[in-house]
C-alpha cells in the first residue's frame, strides 16, 4: 500500500487545457487553463478522487458542466474567484467549501479565476463509473468510464456528443442471415 500521507508541497502537477500537449487536431481554447496535481491515486484512494487544481489569473479550468452520477466538493486553498452554479454566481476566497451534487443543468458548475493571482483548490469527488456530464452552454454531453481489462489495467472510455446526433439503436445491425 502506498504511504497514506502526501504534503501538498510535494504534489506533481500536469498541465490541462491550452498548451497542455493535446493530441494533433485538438484545439484547446486559451481561456481554459489549469494545472492538476493528482493526490488520490498516489495515496491509493479507491472510492474518492482528489487533486489540487491551480487556475491561472483570469482563466477558467473547465466548461460549465454537471455530473449525473458523481458528487464534487471543492475547498479553496488560496486566491479568489467565482463559482457559477446554474445561473447564479458566488464569490470564492480561501477557506470556502463548495458542494456540487449530481444532477442536471440546475447543478452545472464552473470555477473561474477572476483575480490577478493563481486560484488553488482541493477537488474531491466520488468515483462512480461510468458518469455522464452535461455541458448546458454548448449543448454537449460526455460519457466517461474507467474499467479494468482482463489483466486489471485501467481502460478509459470517453465519448462526447450532442443529443441531436443520436442514432437508432438498430442502426448498422445486420439483417438475420
Q: Please report the total strand number as a whole number.
A: 13
CATH superfamily of the domain at 8-128: Jelly Rolls
CATH structural fold name of the domain at 8-128? Jelly Rolls
The rounded Rg comes to 18 Å
Oligomer: single chain
Strand order of the largest sheet: 1-2-3-10-5-8
Order of helices and strands: EEHEEEEEEEEEEE
C-alpha termini separation = 53 Å
CATH class of the domain at 8-128: Mainly Beta
Level of helix content?
under 10%
- State which percent range the strand residues make up: 35-45%
Judged by helices, strands and strand pairing, the structural class is mainly beta
Query: In the CATH classification, which architecture of the domain at 8-128 applies?
Result: Sandwich
Number of helices: 1
| Largest β sheet strand count, sense and barrel closure | 6 strands, antiparallel
Give the secondary structure arrangement, pairings included.
Layout: E1 13-17, E2 33-38, H1 40-43, E3 48-55, E4 66-67, E5 72-78, E6 80-85, E7 88-93, E8 97-100, E9 109-112, E10 119-126, E11 131-135, E12 140-148, E13 154-161
Antiparallel strand pairs: 1-2, 2-3, 3-10, 4-11, 5-8, 5-10, 6-7, 6-9, 11-12, 12-13
Structure described in brief:
This protein has 177 residues and is mainly beta. It has one helix at residues 40-43, and strands spanning 13-17, 33-38, 48-55, 66-67, 72-78, 80-85, 88-93, 97-100, 109-112, 119-126, 131-135, 140-148, 154-161. The protein has a domain at 8-128: Jelly Rolls (Sandwich).
